[in-house]
Amino acid sequence: MSVAALRRDLAEARDDLRALREASEARLRAARDLRPVERKDKEQILTARTVEQKLEALLRAEEPRLVRWLVREWKGQRADITDEELLDAIRTGDLPLQTIWHFQDRYTDFVNTKMVESWSAAAGVSSEMWQRGLRRAGVQHRFDFLGNRIEEWTSQHSAELVTHMLDQQRQALRNVIRYHTAVEPLAERSLVRLLRPLVGLTPRQANQVRALREELASQGVRARRIDEQVARLALRNQRIRAQTIARTELAMAYNNAAQLTVKDVVDAGGFESAPEKVWRTQKDERVCPICGPLHEQRTWLDGAFENGSTLPPAHPRCRCVVLYEMPTPLGGTS
Ligand SMILES: [Zn+2]
Description:
Blueprint: H1 3-33, E1 43-44, H2 48-80, H3 83-92, H4 97-136, H5 146-183, H6 188-195, H7 203-218, H8 223-267, E2 276-280, E3 298-300, E4 321-326
Helix pairs in contact: 2-4, 2-8, 3-6, 4-5, 4-8, 5-7, 5-8, 7-8
Bound molecules: zinc ion.
Zinc ion binds at residues 281, 285, 288, 291, 312, 314, 318, 320.
């Protein structure tokens, strides 16, 4: 490509960016005009206690099986990847394409079955709770399209999660391969043995296992003993990651379903003005440096909180929730 063509492309990309920025600023301004009415006119739909306890109960009920499913999925992936594929990855620096596709298929399948089941459970608990709360508060609404909206959220989020898990997987293996080919060369056979248990770990977790292997090797520990220790730490990390994913994904579905439920009423014109949402940090999380400052912060329905998030979770394993306060509903009892 010529320099002139490159410059033209760059200029076009800059124009696109500017247009995008202007559009998003316009949307922000429009959202600000929808600012909620004064606090004195507000009514709490559900108490913090109800919303927080329901999330805790959901996690207790749903987390264990999702963790089991995830751990089983990675076990399957580790069994599926062949020595030849790992050797190929070592020589090229990345997983072979057919391995990536295979992982992608497996993840897609996993997310579309197991994960969707867990998301649906979480979304169901949350949206039913909010529907009951809204009805009790005098909102008359049929929620005919809510199921579609939740499904739409699920399918969009499915694609994001598959991409995220696959990227992490690839990055984790790539980092360790790069280290043990470019920085501290390791015999191919040993590297294959190290890589297999890393399937399913985040890049940080994989590096931790890699460092342990190196440490033990430098102490002259026997190969078999090293393999055992490496496998043990890898499994522990996998379990931690499974718990993190389970908790975060359940909380995400729970909070998004709440938002979609309230939005369903708003879009049908069920409120005189926009409801306000309030960030609630669970008691034991108030010291969390990310969530602590967000506690009791409020914004309009589609607005972002100070950390830039429109909804919890703010970070992996975050158990925060949002509350909605509403203005007098149309046709309401008050
Ligand atoms: Zn939090």
